[in-house]
Design a protein that fits this description.
The complex is a heterodimer of chains A (778) and B (501). With 778 residues, chain A is mostly helical. Chain A has helices at residues 3-6, 12-22, 32-66, 71-146, 150-303, 308-311, 317-461, 487-504, 522-535, 542-548, 553-568, 573-596, 602-618, 620-642, 660-679, 682-687, 694-704, 709-758, 761-764, 769-772. The longest helix of chain A has 154 residues, at 150-303. In chain B, strand 4 (311-313), helix 13 and strand 5 form a beta-alpha-beta unit. Chain B contains 19 helices and nine strands. The chains are: A mainly alpha (778), B mainly alpha (501). Chain B: One of its GO terms (biological process) is flagellated sperm motility.
C-alpha cells in the first residue's frame, strides 16, 4: 500500500498524479482526511527518494576515495580507456572520409595541373604550327599575285583553299577536342557531385553509426560500471554479512559457553550445597547424639547423686541422680545469682544510657551553639574581608589621588620654579633699572650740588673749586662680585697660557697671569693634568675618543679633561686646585714616608699615604697652608736626597716623579675623599644666585655724604649772611619808592596851584587871592 | 468517485504544468480566498487555462488546492486580475510593464502573445520565457546554446539573419533592416549570413548559352551585382562580436549563373570599411566567397591593428602567396589567436612569410593551412619558426605536398617544443624514413596530444608507436588536469630535460 515509494525514482509530481488516481488516496478527493493522507504519502516518498540519493552518493564517494584498487575502479578505468579508444577510433573513422577526399582532391589538383600544362603546351604547339601554316598561306598569296596564267592561279587558289581548309580543320579539331574534354569534365563533375553526395551520405551514415555506437557503448559501459558497482556492493554486502554472521556466531558460541559454564557452576554449587547440607545434617546428628548421650550420662549421674563422686568412674544410677540434683540446685542458685547480676547490670546500663543521652543532648546543644558561633564568625570574617578589600581599594584610590596630587604639585612646583626663575630674572632686570634710575637721579642731584658748590666757591667766596673724587661716583649699575670660574674654563685658560708661553719661550714669570692659588706653578698643573689625561682614558666614553681623533692636541686634551672632570665630579675652580694639590701632596707624602720607613713595603706605604691623603683631604681647607708647608718640606727633602741624581728639576715637585701607575690610586683616593664634601654641596649652590647686598647701603650712604658737613656749615653761614644782606636791600628799595612818590605829589600840587591862580575868577573878585596870598613864586 | 477521477484526469495537464512552473508558492492563497461560495456559475478568471467543467462544482468549493497556485475561490474576479487581463489585451497600444509589481509582471508576460510587434516588445521585455515562446513559435529547431544561452539574443540574431538572407538590393526596401536596428542593436552579438542575394536581373537571360558565356556577362554586369552593404548595419550594432559571412546563393537550382557567386570589389571595400569601424568584433569569417589575393589584402589591410580581433577565417577562397603575406603582416600587427587559411592557394613563398611572422609571434594559438600547396620549402620554414615560437598549440598542415625533409625538421621541433598539442600532417608524402624520424622526435615529446599521420605513407609500425606515445601523453595530461599542483612540478622538472634533449 505504498505506490509513491515504489515509483520514487521518477518525477514525484508526475508519478503522484499517475498513481493516486488508481490506488492511493488522491489529493483531489473530497475527503480532507484522504487528501492529508495523500500528501503525507507524497512527502514520505520524496524524503525517501532524497535519502536514497544522498546515500548512494555517499557510498559512491566513499568507494571512490577508499578503494583505489577495487573492482569498480578497475571497471571504470577500463571503461574509460575503452570509451576513449572508441571515441578516438570513431572520430578517425569519420574524419577518414574527409582525409580521403582531401587526398583525392590533391590528386585531382595535381592531375589537373598536369593536364593543364599539357593542354597549354599543346595549344602553344598548335598555335605555332598553325601560325606557320598561316604564314605559308599568306606568303603564297604574294606568290599568287605574280601568277598571270589563270590555270596556275586557279591551281594555286585551289591549293590555298585546301591549305585553309586544312588549317580550319585543324582548328576545328582542336575545338572539338577541347569540347570533348569539357564534356568529359562535365561528366566528371557530375560524377564528382555524385561521389561527393555519396561521401556525404557515407559520412552521415558513419556519424550516425558512431553516435549510435557511442551511445550504445556508453550505455553498456554505464551498465558495466553499474554492474561492477552492484557486484562490488553485493560482495561488500556479502562480506559484511559474512563478517556479521561470523561475529554473530562467535557471539552465540560465547553465549553458549557462558551458559554451559554457568550451568556447570550451578551444578557445582548445588552439589556443594548438598554436600554441605549432608555434612551439616550429619554433624547435627552427631551432636544431637552426643548431647543425648550427655543427657543420658547426666541422668545417670543424677540418678546416683549421693555417691556420684565415688561412683563416677563406675556409672551407677542412684548416686548419679543425687549428684545431678545437687548440681541442679547449684545451677539454679547460680542462675539466680546470674539473674540478679543481670538485673543490676541492666539497671546500670540503663542509667548509663540515660546519662549518655543527656550528654548527647548537651553536646548537640553545644554543637549547635558552636555552629552558630562559627557562622557568626564567618560573617564577621566576611565583613572584615570586604571591609579590608574596600579599604585596600580606598587606599589605592587615595594613593592614586595622592600620587596624582603629588605629580600635579611637582608640576606646579616646577612651574613655580620656572616662574620664580623668570621673576628672578625680571627682578634682576628691574632692580638694575631702578638702580640705574636712582643712581642717575642721585648723580644728577650730586652734579647739581657740585655745580652749586662751584658757583658758591667761585662767585661768592672767590675761592678756586676742585671737584671731589670718590670711588662710588664712577660706579654704574648694581655692585656685584666676580663669578666663580668652572674647572674647565680654568683649564682652558691655562692651556692657552702655556701655549703662549711656549710660543714666547722667554717669559719667566708664570704667576703673572694666573690667579692660581699661590704656590702651584702653572707648568706643574699642566703636567699633572697631562698625566691625568693620559692615564685615565677609561673615564672617557669610547664614542668621544673616536670623535676626538681628528682634533688638535690642545683641544683634544681640553675635551678629554672635560670628560674626566665630569666623571670625577670636579666642577669648580676649587675642586681643580684641590685635585692638583692632592697630587702634589701625595707625592710629597710618598717621598717623606719612603724616607721615613724605608723597610716598609710599597703597598703598605701607599695605603698609609692614601689614608693620610684622604684624611688631609677632608680637612683640606684649614690645613692648606700646612700642606703647603709639608710639600715644601717634601720638596726640600727630595732635593736633599735626590739632589745628586736630578739636579735640574729640584724646585718644583715635578710631576714626572708621579709614576703613571700611581695616578689611578691617587685618583681613587681623591674620589673617596671628595665624596663627603660633595654631599653637602647642594645648599651653597643655591646661594650662588643670591646677590650680596651688604655694600649697597654703604654705597648709597656714600652717595648722600658727597657734600661734607663742613661745607654744609659754610653754606648755612653764607645763607644767613646773605639773608641779612637781602633784608637791608629790600628796606632800601622801599625807601626809594616812598621818596619818588612824594616827589610826584609835590609837583602835582604845584601844578594845581598854578591853575587856580591863573583862572578869571580871580580878577572879578574884590579881593584877589593873589593879593591876599603871597604868591610863593614871587 | 468515478467523477472525481475523470475530472482530475482532465485537469492533470494544467496542474502539472503549473506546478512545475511554480512549485514554491504552494499554499500562498489562503488570504485571497473570499467568503464562502454560493453560486457555482461564476468561474474564476484565473482558471482560464483550465477546462471549466460544470460537473465538478464541488471541486470549486475547496478553499485551497496546494497543487494549483492560481486557484482562487473568489466569486468575483479580483480587480488586479481584471486589470492584468486588460493590460494583456491592450498591450500593443499601451504597453505597461515596468510599473507593475514583479508577480503581476510575471503574470502578464506569461499571457502575452508572441505576435506582438517588435517595436513594442524589443526594448521593453527582458523575460526569457517570452522570447522562448517567440522563438518556438517561429522556428522548429532552436539551438539556444549557439546564441550564448539567451533566447532574446537568439530571436533577434535569427530574425536579422533571415532579413539579410532574403534582402535583394534594389528591390527590398533598406528601411526594413535599418528600422530593426534600434530594436536589436543591444542584443545582437553574432551575425551569421550564408547567403547574399544579388540584385534581380531585368534583362532575361538566354537559357541555353548562359553557362559558357557567363564569364563575359559577369564582367559586363559587374557594377550591378553588388550585394547588400553591411556598413550601416555593422556600425549600428553596438555589441557585435562575430561576423560570419558567405557570399553565396543557396537553392538556385536551374537558375544557376556564374555571376550569382561574385564577391565584387565594391562589396569588398564596403565590407572592409565596415569591419574596420567595428571595434567590438572578435571573430571574422569570410568563407566560400571567391576572395582572391587583392580582396584579401583589402580586407586584411582594414584589420591591421584591430583592437580586439581574435579569430580570422578565410578558408575555401582563392588566396595565394600575396594574400598569405598580408595575413603574415596581420599576425604581427594584431592580437590574432586563430588563423584559418584552409583550402586556398598558398604556396611556398606565402608559407615562408607566414613562418617568418610566426617565429616571434606570441598571440597565435591555432594555424590552419589545410589543402594548400606549401611544399617542403614552406614546411621547413614553418618548422624553423616553431623552434622559436612558444605559443602555437594547433597546427594543421594536411594536404600540403610535404615530404621527408619537413618531417626531419619537425622531429627536431617535437623534441624541443613544449606548447604544441596538436599537429595534422595527413595527406602528405612523409615516407617511411620521415615517419621514423618523426617517431624519434615523438619519443622526446611530452606535450603533444594529437598527431594525425593518415594517408601520408608512413610505416604502420611507426604510426602505431607514435600513437602509443600520444596515448601516454594524453594520460599524463589527464593526470595533470586532475591535480594541477602536481602539474606545476612536472613542468618545472621537464623543462630542463627538454631543453637538454
Amino acid at each position: 500500500m505504498n505506490p509513491p515509494g515504489s515509483l520514487a525514482g521518477l518525477d514525484p509530481n508526475l508519478d503522484e498524479h499517475l498513481s493516486t488516481q488508481i490506488l492511493a488516496p488522491s489529493v483531489h478527493s473530497d475527503n480532507p482526511q484522504e487528501r492529508i493522507q495523500a500528501r503525507r504519502l507524497r512527502i514520505a516518498a520524496r524524503l525517501e527518494a532524497r535519502r536514497r540519493e544522498a546515500l548512494g552518493e555517499y557510498l559512491d564517494g566513499k568507494k571512490e576515495s577508499e578503494e583505489d584498487q577495487s573492482k569498480s575502479y578497475k571497471q571504470k578505468e577500463e571503461s574509460r580507456l575503452k570509451l576513449a579508444k572508441l571515441l578516438l577510433c570513431g572520430t578517425e573513422l569519420v574524419t577518414n572520409i574527409q582525409v580521403a577526399i582531401d587526398i583525392r582532391e590533391i590528386h585531382r589538383r595535381v592531375e589537373e595541373e598536369e593536364i593543364k600544362r599539357q593542354r597549354i603546351e599543346k595549344l602553344e604547339n598548335e598555335v605555332k604550327t598553325s601560325q606557320d601554316k598561316f604564314d605559308e598561306i599568306t606568303s603564297k598569296w604574294e606568290e599568287g599575285k605574280q601568277k598571270r596564267i589563270p590555270q596556275e592561279l586557279w591551281e594555286m587558289l585551289n591549293t590555298q583553299q585546301l591549305h585553309c581548309a586544312g588549317l580550319l580543320e585543324d582548328k576545328n579539331k582542336l575545338i572539338s577536342e577541347l569540347q570533348q574534354e569539357l564534356k568529359t569534365k562535365d561528366d566528371q563533375y557530375v560524377k564528382d557531385l555524385k561521389k561527393q553526395s555519396d561521401d556525404i551520405c557515407l559520412l552521415l551514415e558513419r556519424m550516425e553509426e558512431q553516435v549510435k555506437n557511442v551511445m550504445k557503448t556508453f550505455r553498456e559501459e554505464l551498465y558495466n560500471i553499474e554492474k561492477a558497482f552492484e557486484v562490488e556492493r553485493q560482495e561488500l554486502l556479502a562480506s559484511n554479512k559474512k563478517k556479521w554472521e561470523r561475529a554473530l556466531q562467535a557471539h552465540n558460541a560465547k553465549e553458549l559457553e557462558y551458559l554451559t559454564n554457568r550451568m556447570k557452576k550451578v551444578e557445582d554449587y548445588e552439589k556443594q550445597l548438598n554436600r554441605q547440607r549432608i555434612w551439616d545434617c550429619e554433624e547435627y546428628n552427631t551432636i544431637k547424639i552426643k548431647l543425648e548421650q550427655d543427657v543420658q550420662v547426666q541422668q545417670l549421674v543424677l540418678t546416683r547423686v549421693p555417691g556420684w563422686r565415688s561412683t563416677w568412674p563406675t556409672p551407677v544410677n542412684v548416686s548419679c541422680l543425687a549428684t545431678t540434683c545437687d548440681i541442679l540446685e547449684i545451677l539454679e542458685q547460680q542462675l539466680q545469682q546470674r539473674k540478679a547480676i543481670y538485673q543490676l547490670n541492666q539497671e546500670k546500663l540503663e542509667y548509663n544510657l540515660q546519662v549518655l543521652k543527656k550528654r548527647d543532648e548537651e553536646s548537640t546543644v553545644i554543637k549547635s551553639q558552636q555552629k552558630r558561633k562559627i557562622n557568626r564568625l564567618h560573617d564577621i570574617l566576611n565583613n572584615l574581608r570586604s571591609k579590608y578589600a574596600k579599604q585596600i581599594k580606598q587606599f589605592q584610590e587615595e594613593n592614586q589621588s595622592l600620587t596624582l596630587d603629588y605629580k600635579r604639585l611637582v608640576l606646579q612646583f616646577k612651574e613655580l620654579q620656572k616662574a620664580m626663575r623668570h621673576f628672578a630674572l625680571i627682578d634682576d632686570e628691574k632692580f638694575r633699572e631702578i638702580w640705574l634710575m636712582n643712581e642717575e637721579e642721585a648723580k644728577d642731584l650730586i652734579a647739581r650740588a657740585f655745580d652749586v658748590d662751584r658757583i658758591i666757591h667761585t662767585h661768592h667766596l672767590g675761592l678756586p673749586w676742585t671737584a671731589p673724587d670718590f670711588w662710588f661716583l664712577k660706579n654704574v649699575g648694581p655692585i656685584s662680585q666676580q663669578p666663580q670660574k668652572s674647572a674647565t674654563q680654568i683649564v682652558e685658560e691655562m692651556l692657552m697660557h702655556t701655549e703662549e708661553e711656549e710660543a714666547e719661550e722667554a717669559a719667566s714669570e708664570p704667576e703673572s697671569y694666573l690667579d692660581l692659588p699661590k704656590q702651584i706653578s702653572e707648568k706643574t698643573t699642566k703636567k699633572i693634568l697631562m698625566v691625568l689625561c693620559d692615564e685615565s682614558g677609561f673615564l672617557i666614553e669610547s664614542k668621544l675618543l673616536s670623535l676626538l681623533l681628528p682634533l688638535e692636541q690642545n683641544e683634544c686634551y681640553l675635551l678629554r679633561l672635560d670628560a674626566i672632570f665630569s666623571a670625577l665630579g670636579i666642577e669648580s675652580e676649587d675642586d681643580l686646585y684641590k685635585l692638583v694639590n692632592f697630587f702634589l701632596k701625595y707625592r710629597a707624602h710618598r717621598l717623606s714616608s719612603s724616607l721615613q720607613i724605608k723597610s716598609c713595603s710599597q703597598a703598605s706605604m701607599e695605603k698609609a699615604s692614601m689614608e693620610k691623603a684622604s684624611m688631609e683631604e677632608t680637612s683640606m681647607g684649614s690645613e692648606l697652608e700646612l700642606a703647603e708647608q709639608t710639600e715644601m718640606e717634601g720638596a726640600k727633602e727630595e732635593s736633599l736626597v735626590e739632589g745628586e741624581k736630578e739636579e735640574e728639576e729640584e724646585t718644583p715637585p715635578s710631576p714626572w716623579d708621579i709614576h703613571p701607575n700611581d695616578v689611578l690610586k691617587i685618583l681613587e683616593a681623591f674620589v673617596m675623599g671628595l665624596k663627603k664634601p660633595r654631599d653637602s654641596r647642594a645648599p651653597p649652590r643655591v646661594q650662588k644666585n643670591m646677590r650680596n647686598n651688604s655694600k649697597d647701603s654703604e654705597y648709597w650712604q656714600a652717595l648722600t655724604t658727597v657734600i661734607p658737613s663742613s661745607k654744609q656749615n659754610l653754606w648755612d653761614a653764607l645763607y644767613t649772611a646773605l639773608e641779612k644782606y637781602h633784608i637791608v636791600l629790600t628796606q632800601r628799595a622801599k625807601l626809594l619808592l616812598e621818596n619818588s612818590s612824594l616827589e610826584q605829589r609835590n609837583t602835582e600840587l604845584q601844578a594845581l596851584l598854578q591853575q587856580y591862580l591863573n583862572s578869571k575868577i580871580n580878577s572879578e573878585l574884590q579881593v584877589p587871592p593873589t593879593q591876599v596870598l603871597r604868591v610863593p613864586t614871587k | 468517485m468515478q467523477e472525481t477521477v475523470t475530472t482530475s484526469a482532465l485537469l492533470d495537464p494544467s496542474h502539472s504544468s503549473v506546478s512545475t512552473q511554480d512549485k514554491s508558492s504552494t499554499g500562498g492563497h489562503t488570504s485571497s480566498t473570499g467568503p464562502q461560495p454560493s453560486k457555482p456559475s461564476i468561474t474564476p478568471v484565473s482558471a482560464k487555462s483550465r477546462n471549466p467543467h460544470p460537473g465538478a462544482n464541488f471541486h470549486r468549493m475547496r478553499r485551497i488546492i496546494a497543487e494549483d497556485p492560481e486557484w482562487s475561490l473568489a466569486i468575483v474576479p479580483l480587480l488586479t486580475e481584471l486589470c492584468i487581463q486588460h493590460i494583456i489585451r491592450n498591450f500593443q497600444n499601451n504597453p505597461i510593464l515596468k510599473q507593475m509589481l514583479p508577480e503581476h509582471q510575471q503574470k502578464v508576460l506569461n499571457h502575452l502573445s508572441p505576435d506582438l510587434p517588435l517595436a513594442v516588445t524589443a526594448n521593453l521585455i527582458d523575460n526569457e520565457n517570452y522570447w522562448l515562446r517567440c522563438c518556438m513559435q517561429r522556428w522548429p529547431v532552436c539551438h539556444v546554446a549557439h546564441h550564448g544561452g539567451s533566447w532574446k539574443r537568439m530571436f533577434f540574431e535569427r530574425h536579422l539573419e533571415n532579413l539579410l538572407k532574403h534582402f535583394i538590393p534594389g528591390t527590398t526596401d533598406p528601411a526594413v533592416i535599418l528600422d530593426l536596428l534600434p530594436l536589436c542593436r543591444n542584443y545582437v552579438r553574432r551575425v551569421h549570413v550564408d547567403q547574399f542575394l544579388p540584385p534581380v536581373q531585368i534583362p532575361a537571360q538566354l537559357r541555353p548559352g548562359d553557362q559558357s558565356d557567363s564569364g563575359s556577362e559577369g564582367e559586363m554586369e559587374e557594377p550591378t551585382v553588388d550585394h547588400y552593404q553591411l556598413g550601416d548595419l555593422v556600425a549600428g550594432l553596438s555589441h557585435l562580436e562575430e561576423l560570419d559571412l558567405v557570399y553565396d546563393v543557396k537553392d538556385c537550382g536551374m537558375n544557376f549563373e556564374w555571376n550569382l557567386f561574385l564577391f565584387t570589389y565594391r562589396d569588398c571595400h564596403s565590407l572592409a570599411a565596415a569591419i574596420k569601424a567595428c571595434h567590438t568584433l572578435k571573430i571574422f569569417k569570410l568563407t566560400r566567397s571567391k576572395v582572391d589575393d587583392d580582396k584579401a589584402r583589402i580586407i586584411i589591410r582594414s584589420l591591421l591593428d584591430h583592437p580586439v580581433l581574435e579569430e580570422l577565417d578565410l578558408s575555401h577562397n582563392l588566396i595565394g602567396d600575396r594574400g598569405a603575406r598580408g595575413a603574415a603582416k596581420l599576425l604581427s600587427h594584431s592580437r590574432l589567436r586563430v588563423l584559418n587559411l584552409a583550402n586556398n592557394q598558398v604556396r611556398a613563398p606565402g608559407a615562408q612569410s607566414l613562418a617568418h611572422a610566426l617565429a616571434h609571434n606570441t598571440n597565435l594559438i591555432s594555424l590552419n593551412l589545410r589543402l594548400n600547396c606549401i611544399e617542403d620549402e614552406g614546411g621547413q620554414a614553418l618548422a624553423h619558426a616553431l623552434q622559436t615560437n612558444k605559443c602555437l598549440t594547433t597546427l594543421h598542415l594536411g594536404g600540403n605536398e610535404l615530404s621527408e625533409p619537413t618531417a626531419t625538421l619537425l622531429s627536431q621541433v617535437l623534441a624541443i617544443n613544449t606548447t604544441l598539442t596538436s599537429i595534422n600532417l595527413s595527406c602528405n608524402h612523409i615516407g617511411l624514413d620521415g615517419g621514423k624520424q618523426l617517431l624519434e622526435g615523438m619519443s622526446d615529446n611530452k606535450t603533444l596530444l594529437e598527431f594525425d599521420l593518415r594517408l601520408s605513407d608512413v610505416a604502420q609500425e611507426s604510426e602505431y608507436l607514435i600513437g602509443q606515445a600520444l596515448y601516454a601523453n594524453r594520460e599524463a595530461a589527464r593526470q595533470r588536469a586532475l591535480n594541477p599542483s602536481h602539474f606545476m612540478s612536472t613542468i618545472t622538472a621537464n623543462g630542463p630535460e627538454n631543453s637538454v634533449g
